[in-house]
Amino acid sequence: MQVTPLPNDFAAEASGVDASQLDGVTFKSLHSAWLRYPILRLRGQRLDDAQLQAFSRRFGPLEYAPMGRIPDAERDKLPNPFVTTISNIVENGRPVGGLGNAEAAWHTDMSYIEDPPTASVLYAVEAPEEGGDTHFCNMIAAFLALPPSLRDRVRKVRLKHDVAHDSVGKLRRGHRHAPSPLEAPGAVHPMVRSHPENGTEALFLGRRQDAYVEGLSLRESEAFLDEVWHYVALPDAVWTQQWQVGDLLMWDNRSVMHRRAAFDAGARRLMRRTQVRP
Question: Are 97 and 31 in contact (CB under 8 A)?
Answer without folding.
Answer: no
